[in-house]
Design a protein that fits this description.
This is DNA (Cytosine-5)-methyltransferase 1. This protein has 213 residues and is an alpha/beta fold. It contains seven helices and seven strands, in the order E-H-E-E-E-H-H-E-H-E-E-H-H-H. The protein is 29% helix and 15% strand.
Length: 213
């Protein structure tokens, strides 16, 4: 997939703001679910395929959006940080970020590593794995939503031996298996498969239709 030649989608008329968007893995999922997407990240993201603002996600205005997504940096909580360095070198942005979204009055989604759910910092309304979407990777991620989950369920994980392992020597293959083909291998190290938010975006639409009925 080329970042400048986007796949076809069926627009739903809603706008989503993706805070801490990175190179746009989860943004692409919302796009495929029909949303108009805007991304915000503290760092330049030259390969981000949608409207982009380089800004602080904790202060960027939220007005004008129908759904807010946030992937606050996970290094403070991830087990791999403890193995390779010190979690104290990475600030906890999840706690203030979550409070900001809760106070906004807008529908929201927060994505992070499963460790945040195990520690009670994130309610795992949805815990997703690549194998649930037919991908050849695991890539577990927890999602908390303002509507509290529910809706359709995905199939259980299938952790077969043939799954690609996340390792730098094969990271291009891993990135492509996630569906993040427009990113560089380095950008894809922190990416999450678009399939997750394509599904999450559909869950939000289902919730809204149910609430309006």
């Amino acid at each position: 997939m080329n970042a400048r030649v986007l796949p076809l989608r069926r627009p739903n008329g809603l706008r989503v703001l993706d805070l801490c968007c990175g190179a746009g893995g989860l943004s692409m999922g919302y796009y495929l679910a029909g949303y108009d997407v805007t991304g915000v990240d503290l760092h330049p993201m030259p390969n981000y395929p949608f409207t982009f603002h380089q800004a602080d996600a904790l202060t960027f205005p939220l007005d004008g959006y129908d759904l807010i997504h946030a992937s606050w940096p996970c290094e403070h909580f991830a087990r791999v940080t403890a193995w390779r360095g010190s979690r104290d070198n990475h600030p906890d942005l999840l706690t203030p970020g979550r409070k900001r979204l809760q106070a906004s009055g807008l529908p929201w989604v927060i994505e992070n590593v499963p460790e945040t759910a195990w520690a009670g910092l994130l309610r795992p309304d949805y815990l997703l794995c690549g194998t649930q979407f037919g991908l050849n990777v695991r890539r577990h991620r927890a999602f908390e939503t303002s509507w509290g989950g529910g809706g359709d369920l995905v199939a259980p994980c299938w952790h077969r031996k043939s799954l690609l392992a996340f390792e730098h020597k094969a990271e291009r293959a891993y990135a492509d298996a996630m569906g993040c083909t427009w990113m560089t291998s380095k950008e894809a190290r922190k990416a999450v498969p678009p399939a997750y938010t394509e599904w999450i975006g559909q869950q939000y639409l289902t919730h809204e239709r149910s609430a309006a009925a």
